[in-house]
Specification:
Distance between the termini: 40 Å
CATH class of one domain: Mainly Alpha
Number of strands: 0
Strand content: under 5%
CATH topology of one domain: Cytochrome Bc1 Complex, Chain D, domain 2
Radius of gyration: 14 Å
Helix content: over 70%
CATH architecture of one domain: Orthogonal Bundle
Structural class: mainly alpha
C-alpha cells in the first residue's frame, strides 16, 4: 500500500503545508480572545488521540514552535497517515501554539 506522500510526491505535502500556513491565521482569528478551559481540555484530548499514539509528550515539549510551525508539523503528520479532520487540526494547532509555543513560560 502506497502512502499519500509517495503517491503525490513531496511537492503535495509541501503544497498542503503552505496552504495550511496561509489559512491558519484566518482560522485562529475566529477564536481570538475566546480560548476557554474547555478549549485547553479539548486540545489536550486531541493531542492524546492523534499525536501521543506515536509521539511522547517530551518530543512536543522539546520542540517549542509557533502556531504556524505546529500547523506545518500537523499537516505533515496528516500526509503521513494521521487521521484528523481540518477542524480538529486547527483546534490542535491552536492548543499547541498556546501551551507548547515559543514562550519559555508555557
Amino acid at each position: 500500500m502506497q502512502t499519500t506522500n509517495t503517491r503525490h510526491g513531496r511537492w503535495g505535502a509541501i503544497a498542503a503545508a503552505a496552504f495550511a500556513v496561509a489559512i491558519g491565521p484566518l482560522a485562529a482569528a475566529q477564536h481570538a480572545g475566546s480560548y476557554t478551559p474547555a478549549d485547553v481540555e479539548n486540545g489536550a484530548r486531541l493531542f492524546g488521540q492523534h499525536c501521543s499514539t506515536c509521539h511522547g509528550a517530551d518530543r512536543v515539549n522539546d520542540a517549542r514552535k509557533t502556531a504556524e510551525g505546529w500547523r506545518v508539523v500537523a499537516v505533515d503528520m496528516r500526509e503521513r497517515g494521521a487521521r484528523i479532520t481540518d477542524a480538529e487540526l486547527e483546534r490542535l494547532v491552536e492548543w499547541l501554539g498556546r501551551v507548547k509555543g515559543t514562550n519559555d513560560s508555557q
